[in-house]
Design brief:
The protein has eleven helices and twelve strands. It has about 375 residues and is of the alpha/beta class. It folds into two domains: about 35 residues, no CATH class; about 300 residues, Leucine-rich repeat, LRR (right-handed beta-alpha superhelix), CATH 3.80.10. Helix 2 packs across helix 3 and helix 9 packs parallel to helix 10. The protein starts with 8 loop residues before the first strand and ends in an 11-residue tail after the last helix.
Length: about 375
């Protein structure tokens, strides 16, 4: 999972990045000279011009963002957007960078609060991604952690929700990312972070989500706030709380071997059609736990991408599962890092996982 590129599709639609109008008075002399010489390169200067050049409102997933040092704040971009476009036809939204400076200096829940304040303008919204922010804009650990519960309350017809976030930038590290709630229509939930707080998987299991089919959790590193343990996954793995769940992703963990062993014996496994244990530190020990546990041959796909599994074990996994029709993703194999300095080796292992193994996304 790359954090170096914004999404190019969401909710089954191509993403269109909205470019707000430019104020010519705030342009540099060089920019104005270029626009004078090449009028076709001049950006729109009004929201009407932006709308006239844009795709049909219902044909794309709209990416709304600002950017470090940009002219408009996120509320200004959003206000211009909802007044220039027929938002009643918009099915998919992607909310990206939402500050004009460092995000930690912005209101924590700004994108969520802004969208919820305009919920009545988006009756057709079915897919939402909050926080499509790439590492070039902000490291994931720096993205303020808010509360997405208001979105589920404000959009009862929503079917897909992804939320990317980092560490809490308040003194209250227990502030919830999600509170127990009911949502009858949500089919897909992705919670992406370099450090998942322990309450979050517990809360997901406590929610009433009868339609949920697809769940991805990036568990992350303790150094970046990821204090989720196996005990916090117990209710999810037991199975009864999410009756329609068919895909489970427990990813990006420095304890991926232990998670694999827990999943291999979990009641929920039997009714899954796809399992994702990618992005973490899985090695031969975790792979063997999967082979020793419940049968996996009923799965359509098993992703172990970004792993530390050896060649022999990879071959065993493929030979065991692929003849049964399981698509096994063993791409992006990693090498352990070993340092000649014992002190440095110990310190890095403490911060970055077991024996020089790294998760894919932390900082």
């Amino acid at each position: 999972m790359s954090l170096h590129r914004n999404r190019d599709t969401w909710g089954g639609l191509p993403v269109h990045r909205l470019e707000p109008p430019r104020d010519p008075a705030r342009a540099s002399d060089r920019e104005r000279n270029i626009w004078a010489m090449f009028p076709s390169s001049a950006p729109p200067t009004t929201w009407s011009e932006v709308a006239a050049a844009a795709p049909d409102a219902g044909d794309v997933a709209w990416h709304l963002s600002t950017g470090y040092g940009k002219e408009m704040s996120f509320p200004e971009v959003f206000e211009g957007f909802v007044h220039a476009f027929d938002t009643t036809r918009i099915r998919s939204l992607v909310l990206g960078y939402w500050g004009t400076g460092i995000l930690s200096e912005e209101t924590v829940n700004l994108p969520v609060d802004t969208l919820c304040a305009h919920a009545d303008r988006f009756p057709a919204l079915r897919s939402l991604f909050v926080g499509d922010i790439v590492s070039e804009e902000h490291e994931i650990s720096w993205i303020p952690r808010g509360d997405v519960t208001p979105i589920l309350d404000a959009f009862p017809e929503l079917e897909e929700l992804a939320y990317r976030f980092g560490q809490s930038n308040t003194n209250d590290r227990t502030a919830p990312v999600l509170r127990p709630t009911r949502h009858a229509r949500l089919r897909r939930l992705e919670l992406q972070t370099g450090g998942m707080p322990a309450h979050l998987p517990v809360t997901v299991a406590a929610c009433d989500l009868p339609a949920l089919e697809h769940l991805d959790l990036w568990l992350g590193d303790p150094f970046y706030g990821g204090d989720t343990t196996l005990d916090d996954l117990t209710d999810l793995l037991a199975g009864p709380h999410l009756p329609r769940l068919r895909h489970l992703g427990l990813m990006n963990s420095p304890t991926q071997n232990h998670i694999a062993a827990a999943v291999a014996g979990a009641p929920v496994l039997a009714r899954l059609t796809s399992l994702d244990l990618s992005m973490g530190t899985l090695d031969d020990t975790g792979a063997q736990a999967l082979l020793d546990g419940q049968p996996l041959t009923h799965l359509r796909s098993l992703s172990l991408r970004h792993h530390y599994i050896g060649d022999t074990m990879r071959q065993r996994l493929s030979e065991h599962l692929e003849p049964a029709g399981v698509a096994v993703d063993l791409s992006d194999p990693q090498e352990r890092e070993i340092w000649s300095d014992p002190v440095e080796h110990h310190e890095r292992c403490v911060l970055n996982g077991e024996d020089g193994r790294y998760i894919e996304v932390s900082e």
